[in-house]
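Recall the central idea of this unit: under ordinary conditions, the amino acid sequence of a chain determines the structure it adopts. In this exercise we apply that idea directly, starting from the sequence alone.
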Amino acid sequence: MVANEQIPKSIWAKKLDEVFGLDLRSLAAFRIGIALVLLADLGIRFGDVVAHYTDAGVMPRSLLAQISKPWHWSLHAISGEPIFQVLLFTIAAVMAIAMLVGYHTRIATIASWVLLISLHNRNPSLIFAADDVLRALMFWAMFLPLGASYSIESALNSANHKLPARVVSGATVALIFQQCFIYIFSAAFKTRSPVWTEGTAVYYSLSFDQYATPIGHFLLNFPALLTLFTYVTLVLEWVAPLLLFVPVRNSFFRMCAVITFVMLHAGFGLTLNLGIFPFLSIFSWLAFLPSSFWHALHKRLQTPARQGLKIYFDADCGFCKKVVHLLRTLLILPGTPLLMAQEYPDIYADMQAYNSWVVEDWQGKRHFKFAGIVYIVSLSPVFFFLVPLLNWKPVMAAGTKFYEAVATNRKIAGRFTKPFKFRPIQVRPSRLLNILALLLLLYTFVWNVSSYAPDAFKRKVWQSTEFVGRATRLDQSWSIFAPGPPRDDGWYVIPGRLQNGSEVDIFRSGNPVSWDKPSLGLRGTIYNNMQWRTYFINLNRAIGQRLYPFYGQYLCRTWNAKHPGEQSLKSFDVYFMDERTVPPGEKQTVEKKQTWQQSCS
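Accordingly, the structure predicted from this sequence is:
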């Protein structure tokens, strides 16, 4: 009787693992993708570090204090000096790199999350959809074993037991539901607008020139196709995330969901200028790749050359042992045997004769020194494209000399790998963290429902807990192009009067003033990046009246710092050429609006 009662439990446990479990390799791919996005985002933002994050820019701390929401804290707001911002950017980049390679992964992920929130809160006028998605993903990433595969930690794993292929925890459940919240609540907001239910939403999206790409603009010539895209997008956001929960043939349906959303976001990226958003969204779906995907990929990559590869290292050299373990993981050759040369007399003789490790290929040929590295790289499924460069004679000669220098100075070289230590990895979900993750998931769900239906919960009760969402930035509202796409399209013209009496357009790098609509390609150079694009969109909205005085002062300072004397700026006006998007078939009109006047005296 007892045995019969245990059978359903094992079946249920298996189903729970299928639906809510995530493969460690998928989590590693997710980690690498998110870390690359963090680094790219930091690099883009760093180009405007003074303009966007110091007191000399468009958002001094005096203005931030006026517009910041309660509990939106920021380490970046401690100082308004550029050197302080450069320091925080540098720390954030180091933490993102550590996350990328999987070194002290959990600490690096937590630090990256903290600095990400701090950066976003420092200038809320730059925030757009990708920032909200990135914060949400980074929050749940802190609870996940991101460093258990394809990482420095996994390369130096000294545990005797084999790690499980998959992990099920409160955090895996939370990440799956979080991904669903992004799309389903976005779809819920969209259904409130007739432009989505009537099929014109994609038309309005691609007509918004501040986002549209040339490809997106070209598609406006096919109205029937735009209607189809509108309905397909809405249906996919409602239904496709639910494929993650199908209990039968879950791997197949997961793969369908991943492919669907990768293609959807690739389409977004081709038709709309959305910054990191398409890449971030695509990378986020890597976490849900099923184990069957990795099994099939592994089988496909098992060529005779990879199966026959053997690497022999000096057992008396701790530095050498670490390097071969790191190389095997970095080059993604997980099945390669790493052997101690001393246990094979003929191999050991070659090692001593060449003062080198020994790399043996599948045909028994031996490679030494830098040539051994080149051969291993040629088998890497990711970095094989580097082989022509590595085989180039100058690179080969320099690489060989470098290898020989390291080989004869192992003790000195060992100092560089001293921080990397062999440690056991344990993938055991903590009961406390599971409970905490599930409670925060429930909180996040309530917040999303509250953002969609503000009267769904008693206001006083909900207000007493809002500080949690504000402080952790789980304050979510997935109204992406919802209820409807923006229609307040147009472009800026900023005629400036110089001390010598001439007039130039400050917004277009001092070119002659032109009121003509700039081409889509020119707009890309004007806005420079997604942060400036978002900022100028906000200038045309309610918050713009608070932003304008400081933007005006910033323009005066930056122009006059580069143009002294008679070329300095005396005053300027800001005009917005309002080209509000009209329904399909109607004639577009443009209204010239003066939105700001500024004196630089």
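Residues 490-599 form one domain.
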